[in-house]
Specification:
Length: 386
Amino acid sequence: MKRRDFLRTTVRTGLLATAGASAGMTSVSTRPRGRTSTQIAYRETPAYAVVPVVGDGKWIWTKPPEDETGYLEPRQFDVSIGVQVQGRGAASGVCGTTAIPVELQEQSIDDVIIESEGCVATLRQVAPEAGQLCLSAPTIQRGQVIGAVARLRVTLRKHYQGYDQGRFPAEQEFPKEFCKLYMYDSPGIQTRQKLVKDLADDIAGQIEHPWDKAQAFHQWVWEHIKARRGFYTSVIEAIRDRVGDCEERAAVFVALCRVSGIPARLVWVPNHNWAEFCLRDHDGGLHWIPSHTSAYTWFGWTGVHELVLQKGDSICVPEKRKPLRLMADWMQWQGTRPRARYYGEMRPIAASIGDDPGPGGRRKSAKGEWVRTSDHPLNSTNQTRE
């Protein structure tokens, strides 16, 4: 599905009924801004995957394939993402957004239907690799419920291109606009601090090839940043304290790459993220190369089916004055604060009747975490690596 098709979706109205009440929508607290009567609420949830997971060879690769490359082993999922707002008094100018997956090389959006009730619901692409479901209503009254849900059929693929150092020249050049997105500071990802520059020099200052530099940064993060669950701090704190969740560990890798002249960015999936760095091949083609710095040690490939919610860590949205590292759930209103709930669910689909649909079922909990669902054995346990 191309971008214009993503924005041209099927819209249904009056179909939400109890969508939010029964399926794990999440509420948020409020934070007023300034002295106006406009209120803004948002939630940024932590990423939690820090436990290494054993591959089973089928659903999770233990090693890349030997005889093929590309975006492989497609699996289909039904994905529902929505926003529900309940009036607690008179309010006006009600708007809300939540992140929604977009078309990427490793995931295709095969079908999109928007269901709405009492509001206008649209999809918008705020960056090449980031999109949002948007809800808006001129007014809402006490007890009134409005909402929107996007229902998507998504095909996810594993990613193996057989990358190695020889595919890329040692000298790399990138356009100025490209560098602005992927070579400098992002919120919470500091690249101008002496601490970051000195560390990058200590790790890879004597290494000439950018592939080898990135590989050295990947290994350093695994060896020196201890895994710890929690909310995001910053690259500086993670380096100083030598601890971090998957988000800090990936962000440290991104910062080290950027100060060494290698474009890099974060990749966000339910409850987890990793990093990608970019190199040009000998023909000038751009390649975004995965680096998994938590849960999986893969470098240069991705051996699991994950729903990508956002790529990048400096996303500009119309309602915010500053770029966002992560597009959080967000609501704005005037008057009496409504109650907002955010819904998310993904369900694997069997290729044929009677086939095992596989692991990967997730639902967004009341705390904003994506938790495992279904009774598939690989959904219920993490297998710690020896």
